[in-house]
Amino acid sequence: MDATEYLVSSLLCGSQERRRAQFAAPAASHANGFRSEMHTIVERALAKNQLLVVPDADISLLCLEGELWLTRDGDSEDYILGPGQSFDARRGDRIVVQALRTSRLKLNA
Questions:
Q1: Which one, out of 5, 19, 49, 73, has a CA that is 20 to 30 A from the CA of 25?
Q2: Does the reported pTM lie above 0.70?
Q3: Are 12 and 30 in contact (CB under 8 A)?
């Protein structure tokens, strides 16, 4: 499974069981992102309190609107992102994002 498929499978992952399984084994996916020469770009809207599991890849997460709470496994700090703020994740990071209010974000892989 390449980074695009993994990214999209993370975005499509809905239930808590599926989010947990996401860390255990990559899920099958459907491509719905835009692939440029070197980057896959996916925009996603999140409802208040909705969760998103960030895929295990080198990814930049940009908050376009709203407010996002980002937590990384093994990191004692959590991060709050507002519009225009970004966070760079590295392969091996286990990250979950929660929308503190209705939000839009962009993932660049």
A1: 49
A2: no
A3: yes
Alpha carbon distance 14, 43 (integer Å)? 16
Structural element, H or E, at residue 33: none
Asked if residue 46 has pLDDT above 80, the reply is: yes
In DSSP notation, 37-58 reads SS-EEEEEEE-TT-EEEEPSSS
Enumerate the β-bridge partners of residue 85: none
Specify whether the CB–CB gap between 54 and 95 falls below 8 A: yes
d(CA 61, CA 82): 11
In 3-state terms, what secondary structure has residue 29? coil
Rg, the chain, Cα only: 13
**Residues 6+ positions from 27 with CB-CB distance below 8 Å:** 9, 12, 13, 18, 21
Percent of the chain with pLDDT over 70: 63
